[in-house]
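A sample copied in:

***
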Amino acid sequence: MENNFKMVAKTLFGFEELLAKELTQLGAQEVEIGVRNVSFVGDKGFMYKANLALRTAIKILKPIRTFRVVTEQDIYDNIYKMQWDEYLKPTGTLAVDATINSTVFTHSLYIAQKTKDAIVDKFRNTTGVRPSVDLKFPDLKINIHIDRQKCTVSLDTSGDSLHKRGYKTATNIAPINEVLAAGLIMLSGWDGQSDFMDPMCGSGTILAEAAMIACNIPPNLMRKEFAFERWDDWDVDLFEKIEESLLSKTRDFHHRIIGYDKSPSAVTKATENVKNAHLDEFVTIKHEDFFKTQKGGHEKLHMLFNPPYGERLNIEMEDFYKSIGDTLKQNYPGTDAWLITSNLEALKCVGLRPSRKIKLFNAKLESRFVKYVMYEGSKKAKKQV
């Protein structure tokens, strides 16, 4: 179709296949996996849909030009040549960000500045008026990506990172990123067909993302704004149609989502965030110390949590992680327990053999996402059944 164009969805390391699957299920065409990104083809309506519905995307970019660069002047000259009046009014506002993988160009801020200069000079020289910079709410957000000698100029369709869902007003000292939380739940294979627990829930991010996955609620319905809403071709009727279509695909959830935290302030924050997201009918949050709890009933339980790494909390990590293992082994039979940590030494103290171990990054910290299977009764008896 002639109205289709290429887009690139950026994601976190290790989530590329999850994102490709999400895009395919949404109806994207020509889906191709890269490193920390997935490219695809769709139309304007699909661009709106991708921003609203993708759980593991950080940004959706729309590439508009690619060229070879050897010197800084190449960047300026090529940017200057582009028809910027197709995207921006002379009196408009812009912001530029750059990501660079190059031995020649090493300063992303300098490249962003060079790009801005070329655009501003072009407008000033052709119209006598120049756009101004607005880093918070620009009319046009531009992304420059240099990979060795290849420079790609893209329009940022999202604006703020898509992990900023809009439901979180209260956070604790080490909140987990919403995209990371959603990706972990998807990677763990939970599909809403059993009870779910986060026993160290902090500000409730994992609980909220789990509830949205269970009910198939689009994650970004509560965002205040996407960058494309400031574009000249913004189509509010089309956007509302896409929203309605996505909302018509939500589903019922017949299990429980439970959160514990031993900090009263965390429980308050988590409760507030889940309520902001209009998910409180699906989520129960209690003030409990996980190490003093046990599983109720014989139903299968899916547990997923982000325990402290010792980066910002002053606790004895080895004892803490040993207690995690002991509590799971003694009090949580019939549970698939997943946890993410960057404290690889403390992880050895859990004392359980993981059935899966996946390398991921939490912010810049290299981490492991591990799964422990707690059987009902002994493992031997399980195998004989």
Q: What stands out?
A: Residues 61 and 156 are 5 Å apart (CA to CA). The chain has eleven helices and 15 strands.
